[in-house]
Automatic annotation (TrEMBL):
The keyword Mitochondrion does not apply. This is AraC family transcriptional regulator. Residues 177-287 form the HTH araC/xylS-type domain. Keywords: DNA-binding, Transcription, Transcription regulation. InterPro entries: Homeodomain-like_sf, HTH-like, HTH_AraC. The keyword ATP-binding does not apply. Transmembrane segments: none annotated. PANTHER family: ARAC-FAMILY TRANSCRIPTIONAL REGULATOR, TRANSCRIPTIONAL REGULATORY PROTEIN. It comes from Dyadobacter luteus.
Length: 289
């Protein structure tokens, strides 16, 4: 079986807001998705190690995994025989239904939650059936397909909420180091800015603390203790770095760059940039010509 190209998966996601597919057996290919946008549910059987936020989990059985694009995670496949299913979807797609609670508040998706669950053979068979039906339905022209897919996703979520989460996690002992590591990776995940119509969402220390489900003072203390810099300083330095890249490597006008970086007015961006770099955006851009 030849895996479908990455572009095809991403095109489907951007167009429809969801995609579901079978994981090919004996495939160790790593696919890339727009992690800023899409939530992920995986039902997999095989040996793997999952790094989720500040925790790691190793398994050689069947697990159900819930990935939040706002929380850093990675997946190492440790065996060649690896099978299962993956469903990717945007929050906007799922929230089009009557379900009002944000996914980021769900115990399955939020930081500190329980995104990995051990699945019995009976449970695996039932969930396999749901994924197979989703794959088949995805190919149809049924006019209410989106509603049906949302129902399948919600059914999987509710089945998971009834299960006991895995407790076989390993954690870093240093809480400040753990929190700082998660913050820095989440900060880096906000970049690069790829489009003027998708501006930077997390702009302040409070934004990051809210996203990570912790008090801003707790986050600030941890980051300052480990790095010697404040949370705000890290954010500011990364925004300046991105601003320079956009000025040097895009043809966006300065107003567009300002908006993309989360500034309400170009004047605010100009003042911010000059205060941090000693020069204004226009001068920097002219120097690169």
């Amino acid at each position: 079986m030849h895996p479908r190209p990455i572009s095809e998966f991403n095109s489907t996601l951007k167009l429809k807001g969801f995609n579901v597919f079978e994981i090919e057996q004996d495939s160790n290919e790593t696919r890339a998705y727009s992690r800023k946008d899409f939530y992920k549910i995986c039902l997999t059987t095989g040996k793997s190690k999952i790094h989720y936020s500040d925790r790691s989990f190793e398994t050689d059985a069947t697990v159900l995994f819930f990935g939040n694009p706002h929380i850093p995670y990675s997946w190492e496949t440790l065996s060649t025989s690896y099978v299962g299913y993956t469903c990717l979807f945007s929050e906007e797609f799922l929230m089009a239904s009557e379900r009002s609670e944000s996914l980021q508040q769900s115990p399955l998706f939020k930081i500190g939650g329980t995104p990995i669950l051990h699945i019995s053979e009976q449970q695996r068979n039932f969930l396999n059936t749901l994924f197979v039906r989703m794959i088949e339905e995805q190919k149809t022209d049924y006019p209410f397909k989106d509603d049906l897919m949302r129902n399948y996703i919600n059914l999987i979520i509710h089945e998971a909420l009834k299960l006991k989460p895995s407790e076989n996690y390993s954690q870093q002992k240093n809480a400040s180091g753990r929190i700082t590591s998660v913050f820095l990776e989440l900060l880096e995940r906000q970049f690069p800015i790829e489009s003027t119509d998708r501006p930077l969402q997390l702009k302040t220390a409070q934004d990051y603390a809210t996203n990570l489900n912790m008090h801003v003072n707790y986050l600030n203390r941890a980051v300052k203790q480990v790095t010697g810099k404040s949370t705000t300083t890290h954010i500011t330095e990364r925004v300046v770095h991105e601003a320079k890249a956009l000025l040097q490597h895009t043809d966006w006008n300065i107003s567009e760059i300002a908006y993309a970086l989360g500034f309400e007015y170009p004047t605010y961006f100009n003042n911010f940039f000059k205060r941090l770099t000693g020069t204004n955006p226009k001068t920097l851009r002219m120097q690169e010509v």
